[in-house]
């Protein structure tokens, strides 16, 4: 009998860890579960099998032809369809080519050069939050800080002019919202606007390249460079891979620090190294990408221990669960940044950024954003407090991303 899994259940979204721990404790490298939509999938919840599956080419990233490919019969559906061609949806050799070109633009130097811009954007958002707290008493830290910061940073990466940033933020917010949460047609309209905007942006960068990272990709028209469709898919991928994940990292780290005042005090006293440890431990403890994208077996795969996954099966590697595997992380459910602090016994590397060929291309940028965002926020608001019971905070539904949907905060000093 397959285990039933309902990712839409709010209790599961808030705390899926007991469910995953039960699957992992059963000892098999993968467990077949029944999803609430009537389909079945294989879940990998252990640390070692997760890394094995993610480096095994028999687990393909190419989505089946029919699944998730909208018919291109409306502008909004065409826009969504563009996403299908990105590198996360491809295997070697296509993937290797796309990845090589993107990595050539995403150099550590280019990412590090973003620091002053990220510091400026962070400072502005924190100042706005401080002002809103003074007038409104409470703000939602997701809406006011954790969401806009990564979107604005992707704006920097893509070289979106400052005058267009508010549009980028509004469209991204809409395409990331459930269709029934907004006025009818708003989500489709946002998809269409983003598609038109990115198409024009590519054209503009081609005629007048800037010193942004995306211009470097557009400029590379040598043989094997990206064609326009691939550039469009890349722009969408960078936006979606970069904002929701980083948003969850910042929101979850803030929540963990607000609920662990001793760790917050240690971070304030410990400087950059301790803040980096907070980021690493948040990535492990509250992995922003709960699962990788779906994999599909290209053939029958024997994972050992009697677990045989048939060909053409859907497989999900649950990074959040692998990062809580007690065999690799002692006291896995405890939030202990100290395990990543300098001088600590070397912990196992977490898999929050994935593993193998598709390892996150933006990990350096995500770490840089967190390294700036968290100390800036807590320095400007020393008396920041949660304005809700953490046990009742709503979480984003689904198996892909994980983080609080809202994080109401106030100032304990009431100023
Ligand atoms: C905390 C923030 C982030 C987390 C936890 C995260 C996590 C991940 C993970 C787990 C994967 C692999 C998915 C899979 O194997 O199915 C991935 C891939 C990717 N990420 Fe990130 N990511 C973050 C931020 C970013 C940022 C800021 C960018 C860029 C702006 C980015 C760009 C990408 C790209 C392009 C890929 C695809 C790589 C490939 O297919 O070879 N990510 N990310």
From TrEMBL:
Alphabetized UniProt keyword annotations: Heme, Iron, Metal-binding, Monooxygenase, Oxidoreductase
Gene3D superfamilies in the cross-refs: Cytochrome P450 (1.10.630.10)
Region (Disordered) residue spans: 55-76
Keyword match S-adenosyl-L-methionine: no
Keyword GTP-binding: no
Xref: Pfam families: p450
Family indicated by similarity: Belongs to the cytochrome P450 family.
PANTHER family named among the record's database cross-references: CYTOCHROME P450 YJIB-RELATED, P450, PUTATIVE (EUROFUNG)-RELATED
Listed name of the protein: Cytochrome P450
Organism, scientific name: Streptomyces stramineus
